[in-house]
DNA sequence: TTGAAAGCGATACCAA
DNA sequence: TTGGTATCGCTTTCAA
């Protein structure tokens, strides 16, 4: 194995010089730089990252903290898109990523602590936002740099948030439905623990009030069977003209339930949801959605964190990613 | 920050002793073990993994090599399930994982080389199998331990493969369709570059021949629109009673196309596919599938690799994961 | 069963 | 602009 010392010896310089060449230090002559670079190539030298980490005390990796939820959550296209964009930003800056794997909140906290204490990561990106989150608190208390993808909480000036304006997004989507002529809407949400769902409900209710739309919102009805029962109980075809879901996987289950009940979209009822992905694009039928641009959420989050980590003069700032509505076959103008 | 030396000093022992306690060395007295453990707890000592890596020259992380394909590939539930199960096995054994991020085969090879040369990983899991793969060759040539999830190639005794018997799986699925009374089937496949798709076609054709089933197989027709055109051209309702797809995302597009054409499943036509996941379970309607148990593929692959890495006496072996058919609403007995 | 000390391969400080 | 060298935190001989 070729080490820095080998290079130094062969090039007739000191280890420090070689190190400087690698870090692109500017106080080094063009001559020695060339010489050293050449030798490095000849020898096929590859720096040992571990050794570097030990002395710099920097891991050059960031931790990705996922929600403590079922495996299905991790298959949610929203996450894979965010994750992919984070990875590619990191890749560019020669950072690695490491993802949490815990399913209970207790395990998760411990996992994060272990990552911090063992110096395995330089910072975190939290892929959720939740009030009274012990992990949030731990990171703040221990001054570990991190950014949150999700809603701002506590108004802590030392924490960066990257989010959409979900109230607005939901307001726009509902307003769009209202514009199509809907006067009775059903709103389905997985739960109301996370901030994002609260906001989407808020936006929905605002339009309902403004435009005098009959409505009902239901939480925690998630599986295909549960939804089927709900649709039957609500006599869906008769009492509603549209259904809004907060999530693309929930929407998937809804469509499956409607298919089972032989309710046609958009003729018998119309549907729309949040978070665009192949799931919505290739649904039965393709769904009108709010695109929240997960790839931008991830990109900005990663860039912001890396900036904090690498630049002295980086300035804390939160970001709001704009959203847009994509119209597809699941909605259309209602005949009056 | 608490280091091993701090613990040693406080416990009045040497660093070596503390190190031995951590590694569960057996030549250490019960007394000192207890004493040291207690101090470690008191001080909240967490070993610095980086330092350990440097001296042991082991990274305790394994590299996951993904196909060089579009982002959609990474959203395929098959991958997320395999990945999740690999991660959880690694987590248990205190290994980390690192995933490749390259999209071109050239970049991918370089990424793998860099991982090897910088000692960033101890071994790899390849999440695909392909003939004449330069990465495969590189790993073999450089004696890097790895296991392949996918079909055995080259019959190399020094490489471990974990796979399903896809010929058999496809045979069984097609036989099942035949048993329902189907006598004309359409077979859709994304491509025939990877071994897995070749095998699935082979199994399909075998049954068609045995049971005298009219059939047609089509590659590279993937998007919703392409499929829609195909279905129209083939006059699908009239000429076929069933459609087999090789992949759950392809199946998703098929269902969307059928929905658009107002073709009902299973009344107008029946469908089935490979790889179970929420996509198939919550489809319109839920799909009959071959479960290839991605979680077991990942689990066995990870366990096999870790065994090689950790145990002296580990013995090379390839594994075949059994498959099974899950019957759902998309198929039923055909009335004759 | 324990301790002393020599590294592992980089970086970074202090001198020159 | 360069070199010498202590150092990061741990493991691992070798000796006691």
UniProtKB/TrEMBL annotation, chains A, B:
Presence of keyword DNA-binding: yes
Transmembrane residue ranges: none
Superkingdom to which the source organism belongs: Bacteria
Keywords: DNA-binding, Transcription, Transcription regulation
PROSITE patterns the UniProt entry points to: HTH_LACI_1 (PS00356), HTH_LACI_2 (PS50932)
SMART domains in the cross-refs: HTH_LACI
Residue span, HTH lacI-type domain: 2-56
CDD domains recorded: HTH_LacI, PBP1_MalR-like
PANTHER family referenced in this protein's UniProt entry, alphabetically: HTH-TYPE TRANSCRIPTIONAL REGULATOR GALS, LACI-RELATED TRANSCRIPTIONAL REPRESSOR
Protein known as: LacI family transcriptional regulator
Native species: Abyssicoccus albus
């Amino acid at each position: 194995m070729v080490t820095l010392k080998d290079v130094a010896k062969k090039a007739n310089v000191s280890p420090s010089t070689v190190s400087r060449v690698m870090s692109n230090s500017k106080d080094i002559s063009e001559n020695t730089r060339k010489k050293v670079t050449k030798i490095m190539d000849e020898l096929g030298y590859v720096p040992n990252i571990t050794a570097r980490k030990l002395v710099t005390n920097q891991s050059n990796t960031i931790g990705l903290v996922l929600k403590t939820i079922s495996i299905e959550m991790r298959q949610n296209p929203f996450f894979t898109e965010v994750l992919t964009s984070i990875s590619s930003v990191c890749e560019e800056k020669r950072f690695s990523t490491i993802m949490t794997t815990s399913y209970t909140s207790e395990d998760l906290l411990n996992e994060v602590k272990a990552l911090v204490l063992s110096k395995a990561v330089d910072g975190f990106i939290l892929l959720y936002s939740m009030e009274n989150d012990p992990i949030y608190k731990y990171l703040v208390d221990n001054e570990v740099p991190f950014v949150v993808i999700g809603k701002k909480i506590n108004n802590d000036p030392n924490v960066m948030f990257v989010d959409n304006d979900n109230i607005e997004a939901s307001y726009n989507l509902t307003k769009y439905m209202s514009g199509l002529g809907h006067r009775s809407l059903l709103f389905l949400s997985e739960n109301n623990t996370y901030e994002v769902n609260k906001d989407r409900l808020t936006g929905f209710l605002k339009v309902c009030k403004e435009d005098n739309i009959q409505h009902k919102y239901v939480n925690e009805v998630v599986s295909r069977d549960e939804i089927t029962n709900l649709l039957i109980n609500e006599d869906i075809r008769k009492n509603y003209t549209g259904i809004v879901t907060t999530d693309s996987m929930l929407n998937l289950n809804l469509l499956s339930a409607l298919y089972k009940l032989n309710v046609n979209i958009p003729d018998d009822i119309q549907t729309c949801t949040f978070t665009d992905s192949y799931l919505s694009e290739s649904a039965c039928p393709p769904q009108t959605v709010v695109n929240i641009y997960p790839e931008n959420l991830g990109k900005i989050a990663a860039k912001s964190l890396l900036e904090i980590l690498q630049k002295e003069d980086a300035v804390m700032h939160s970001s709001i990613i704009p959203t847009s509505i994509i119209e597809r076959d699941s909605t259309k103008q209602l005949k009056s």
